[in-house]
UniProtKB/TrEMBL annotation:
This is AB hydrolase-1 domain-containing protein. InterPro entries: AB_hydrolase_fold, Serine_prot/Carboxylest_S33. Keywords: Hydrolase. It comes from the Eukaryota. The keyword Hydrolase applies. Gene3D superfamilies: alpha/beta hydrolase. GO terms for molecular function: hydrolase activity. Belongs to the peptidase S33 family. It comes from Aegilops tauschii subsp. strangulata.
Length: 129
């Protein structure tokens, strides 16, 4: 987490100066605003509720996250799980224990266990190696 946050720092004192180095934040506030608006505008429920055949969608809920999922959203996901199972697709909700917002930093092993269960090797490609 510290390494990621540090990627947003740039040295602001000239290199080689005798004083202690100083740093400043370099956030692109316009870019952040545009990404957030895009996130808010994106609605993928139509895909979740009509999962294409052979596609599997995984939801990950961090156990200690301060973000609370709306009851309506949880119900939609659970309904989609049932419908997708009947139609050779897949929707699954996972809860990652001992993790907050930064799932990859809080519980990387648990996250890998969840994600790795969805990895598969295409047998048609294995014969070509």
């Amino acid at each position: 987490l510290v390494q990621w946050v540090a990627t947003n720092l740039r040295r602001s004192s000239p290199s080689g100066s005798r004083s202690s180095p100083s740093y400043s934040w370099i956030f692109n506030l316009n870019g952040i605003s545009e990404m957030y608006k895009s996130y808010e505008d994106t609605n993928l429920w139509r895909i979740v509720e009509n999962v294409p055949r052979g596609v599997h969608i995984n939801f990950l809920k961090a156990e200690r996250s301060l973000h609370r999922w709306a009851l309506e959203d949880l119900q939609r996901i659970h309904t989609a799980e049932e419908v997708a199972a009947d139609e050779a697709g897949g929707v699954e909700m996972h809860v990652l224990e001992d993790a907050g917002h930064w799932v990859h930093a809080d519980n990387p092993d648990g996250l890998f266990r969840i994600l790795s269960s969805t990895f598969r090797i295409e047998t048609s490609l294995r014969g070509r190696e």
